[in-house]
Amino acid sequence: MTKEEKLKQVCSQFTFKGIFDEAEPYGDGHINDTFKVTYVDDDKKPTQYILQRVNHLVFKNTVGLMENIEHVTSYLSSRITKEQQAEGYEILTLIKTKGDKSYFQDDEGNFWRAYVFVKHATGHTFAEDANMLYEAGKAFGQFQHLLSEYPAESLIETIEGFHNTIWRFKNLKHAVHEDPLLRADQCREEIQFALSREEIASTLVRGLESGAIPLRVTHNDTKINNVLLDDTTGKGRCVIDLDTVMPGSALYDYGDAIRSCGSTIAEDGENLEDLKVNFEKYEAYTKGFLEAMGRNLTPQEMKWLPLAAIIMTLECGVRFLTDYLEGDNYFKIHKENHNLIRARNQFKFVDEMEKQLDVMTEIINKYWR
Fold it and tell me: Does residue 97 lie within any of the structural domains?
């Protein structure tokens, strides 16, 4: 059976309308296999869908993951306002199988799912201007606003302990102690930088445990490429990639977004003298996020928003450093010492944000309502 025949066979399990025409690889995701599928009606008018093979080696409880997505998207569809729809905001829509399930499992044990294709909208790897970040922040803020009353505890953790910084630091200390490749001596300064901030890094985890901040539904991968922007208006159209939607803190999502977009250089850039907080990008994302979600945040969440950006960046640096010590088993590397370079970059960004904490707080207070 050819690849196209296989895809056609999988497609036949879903309630697509029309006759199968073609399926082609789509996007640049690194975890799931994604295809754009075209069906045509009797007049050859095309309708397109997204078909994905879920990587069940990464997401081991794929059934639970799909239940999360099914319940969350259904709830979002019931909550979206006419005003949001008029502005073009859309909810990712699952296509059911002919057996009325949210996924199809083939004879080889692979899990497949399908979505309505969002037309005339694109995911961007990099923000070309601050307005793109404003629209991304607003879209993620709307996503969390619509889910603000959803019972987050009813969702499963698709990746257990994903933002558990206490656990991340335990892994780092274990990697330092074991030092299987004798790399620890090359990064003593970075190890000390991280460990000296271990207590502050646990703030959000402790806050959730104590009830100081509420448990919410979180996206957990708030990079700009997970918002489709309208090709004509540039507005945020649809939040995608819901595999890591699970219980957590809104501060995780905000902090990780700033981590990914708020620096003046790329996360593996080596010229650290050029690394500063890009306040134009920081303010643009913050403004969009708070315009949509600010009214739902508690005073304590608002107080910890700038700290969240520091903690999420520190956590990511710890993960890079741990992977470097363990032999680069998790993050793909493309040059020598790549994960150590990434860790140094993230720690420098942490240092810069610590110095600018008052300015970051002023910007947040400017848009809280």
Answer: yes
Q: What is the CATH number of the domain that holds 34?
A: 3.30.200.20
Q: What is the pLDDT of residues 157-203, one digit of tens each?
A: 998 889 999 999 999 999 999 999 999 999 999 999 999 999 999 99
Residues of the domain holding 212: 130-367
- Whether 304 maps to a domain, the answer reads yes
The 3-state secondary structure of 206-272 reads HHHHHCCCCCEEECCCCCHHHEEEECCCCCEEEECCCCCCEEECHHHHHHHHHHHHCECCCCCCCCH
46 and 164 belong to one structural domain: no
d(CA 60, CA 58): 6
How high is the pLDDT of residue 299? 96
| Residues in contact with 210: Cβ distance below 8 Å, sequence separation at least 6, in sequence order | none
pTM: 0.93
Q: Is 88 left (phi over 0), alpha (psi -120 to 50) or beta?
A: left
- Residues 155 and 23 occupy one common structural domain: no
